[in-house]
Amino acid sequence: MTLELSHLSRRFTGFAALDDVSLDIAPGEFVALLGPSGSGKTTLLRILAGLDYPDSGTARLDGDDFLATQARERKVGLVFQHYALFRHLTVAENVAFGLRVRPRRSRPSRADIAGRVEQLLKRVQLEGLGSRYPSQLSGGQRQRVALARALAVEPDLLLLDEPFGALDAQVRVTLRRWLRELHEELGLTTVFVTHDQEEALELADRIVVMNRGRIEQVGSPEAVYRQPLTPFVCEFIGKVNRIPLTCLDGDLRAGDWVLESDPWQRRHAHAVAYVRPEHLSVSTDAQQPGWQARLRHIYLAGSVAHLELHVAAIDQLLELDLAGEDVARLGLQAGAELRVLPRSAVVFPLNAAERAEDRMAIVADRRVWSAAGEAAVTP
Amino acid sequence: MSAVSRNTALRRPRWPRRIGHALLILATIALLTLFLLVPLAAVFVEALRTGVTAFLAAIEQPEGLAAIRLTLLVAAISVPLNVVFGVAAAWAIARFEFPGKAWLGAFIDLPFSVSPVISGLLYVLLFGAQGWFGPWLDEHGVKIVFAVPGLVLATIFITLPFVARELIPLMQAQGSDEEEAARVLGAGGWQMFFRVTLPNIRWALLYGVLLCNARAMGEFGAVSVVSGHIRGLTTTMPLEVEMRYNEYDVVGAFAMASLLALLALLTLAIKTLLEWRYGDEIAAHAPGGH
Questions:
Q1: Interface residues on B facing A, Cβ-Cβ cutoff 8 A
Q2: pLDDT, tens digit only, all 290 positions of chain B
Q3: B60 and B31, same domain (yes or no)
Q4: Is A84 within 8 Å of B188 when comparing Cβ atoms?
Q5: For site-directed labelling of B233, which of A149, B8, B26, B162 has its Cα 20 to 30 A away?
Q6: Residues B154 and B213 in one domain
Q7: Is B192 helix (H, G, I), strand (E, B) or coil?
Q8: Residue A94 near residue A45 (C-beta atoms within 8 A)
Q9: Do B261 and B230 reside in the same domain of the chain?
Q10: Between chains, do B187 and A78 touch, taking CB under 8 Å as contact?
Q11: CA distance A281 to A260
């Protein structure tokens, strides 16, 4: 049941919500569509649900035209961002809706429907709440009703639009794990939309990073985090330090620190290195290589400490993450003079223009760099 | 217990403010009495002044009964048509983007902004003997002006906005999420409408129907122009009231007027009863009541 999307485009007045998007979704996969608002992720989800149609491009399910299939015949379950429960129906009636609207031939009997509803409510841990109205439920409960309603039609493909967006932090984490377990139990193909990278990294088998209607990168959470394909992915996923580099005398350098010799044979004069806060090494020994830096602040957030450093040589603030116990071991305090050095970085040539061919060149000339002695990250 | 009573004592407004409140309430009651209750009472008093027998006799005149029948007929045709039109227009405006949408919204309000007399005149200009389509209609033996079809057309025009105006803001606030959910769950167009859309708008729709009906029965201006005042044939109840009054048949006029007033009171009573009986449910259907 592989779903093949190829060259989907959708224009709304004035902007392209989807711009030549191609993607394969394998059966049983848990896929996250991740991107900022306006990146086209919800448009893509609506197209899969049959609520919107692309201007061009095709979607095939095992070779059949998926787009020509009516919404009601797609075997798709959709959970809306704000749940969209039927407010005039009880929880049980909401869950039963998809079965009751079936044509008489394929409609289960009353007793079968009631049994199925009860079973689903049990599955989403809402036994005994069948006679309540949506307005009498909490946010987390409504979300699970929406899920039960979507599952009632026995979909092959489950679509979730910002499933945890409207919930408070604690409920969110619990529901997230629970949803992941449910996915594995039912063996459904699940696609969910989110703008929360942490959610995507934790839940998904595969992340599709979207920006301005285009796919920036498709990959495992590991790949997207460790080897971002484009500058956008670097900046959107996780926290990152952006360090400008110059190509001078055959070297790629930032201040007095030389990263490596120019890998591009003088084709680019400038570049930028993206370094994650946990990929910076810090030392109190002034003899160590690296930049001289002054420790501005220490934000101790539980087990992790966020350090804010000012590097005079490149006149830039860097953020560095360290285990809380290391801070104590090194006896770090605000105002201290330290040595800082990146252990690994993703480097892109810098190009002012945002033309399509330049984007290709930037991606083609990307370097995933690790300091000598570090375990190289293999793609 | 004592703590509670001390608390309420503290919250109770001071005397000057309480007097202010009382004066405001009294002024409102006085105005309502003077301008609404006294005239309403006068209608019934005048109608019954010469006794119940005279009252009933005034209504039981053939012209009176014909006027009542005609009024009910006109309402029975125009209200359902405007329900269909109102729901369709509200749906189009609340759910779709199309060129000319702003114009459609403005046109729906037209009957509110144009004087009813002018609305009536429009139909005479179009369908009257000297009107644009008059000769053609005459050739084919169709009578619109000075006949029942004209009354129905004028009433439909006048009551056009009531249902649509009641529904549009509600449907816009409710959004189309639930309808889309129904579609993805496999509901067809009509299933979606009858199982999701209609239940969500039923209270607003009912209000719209009640207001539409009250106006359809009570309309005077537009109907007066197209009616031709043919006794027993094209006079609705409001027209009958005026004609009797002009003929110095005071008891007859007020008897007919009291029936109209009763219809209005009945409408009001139904509306209040519904609000009282289903208040919670109506609140739950209001936007944000989810």
A1: 177-178, 180-188, 191, 195-196, 199-200, 284-285, 289-290
A2: 444 445 555 566 678 888 889 999 999 999 999 998 998 888 888 888 888 888 888 888 888 899 999 999 999 999 999 999 999 999 999 988 888 888 888 888 888 888 999 988 988 888 887 878 888 888 888 888 888 889 999 999 999 999 999 999 999 999 899 999 999 999 988 999 999 999 999 888 988 999 899 899 989 989 998 888 888 888 899 999 999 999 988 888 888 899 888 888 888 888 888 878 776 666 655 554 33
A3: no
A4: no
A5: B162
A6: yes
A7: helix
A8: no
A9: yes
A10: no
A11: 18
What is the CATH number assigned to the segment(s) A239-370? 2.40.50.100
CB spacing of A85 vs B188 below 8 angstroms: no
A51 with B195: Cβ contact below 8 A: no
Rounded to 5 degrees, what angle do the CA atoms A361, A367, A369 make?
170
Q: Chain B closest CA to A101's CA: distance in Å?
A: 5
Cα–Cα distances in angstroms (integers) from residue A238 to residues A197, A223, B149, B267, in the given order = 7, 13, 72, 63
On chain B, the residues whose CB falls within 8 A of the CB of A43 are none
pTM: 0.79
Look at chain B and report how many structural domains it folds into. Answer: 2
SS3 B47: helix
Mutate to test the interface with B, among A88, A151, A157 (most CBs of B within 10 A): A88
Task: Answer for the pair B250, B47: CB distance below 8 angstroms, yes or no.
Answer: no
The CATH code belonging to domain A3-231 is 3.40.50.300
Which of chain A's residues have a Cβ under 8 Å away from the Cβ of B183? 50-51, 71-72
Asked whether residue B27 falls in the same domain as residue B97, the answer is no
Closest approach of A71 to chain B, Cα-based (Å): 6
What range does the domain containing B10 cover?
Answer: 1-47
Q: Is residue B290 included in any domain, yes or no?
A: no
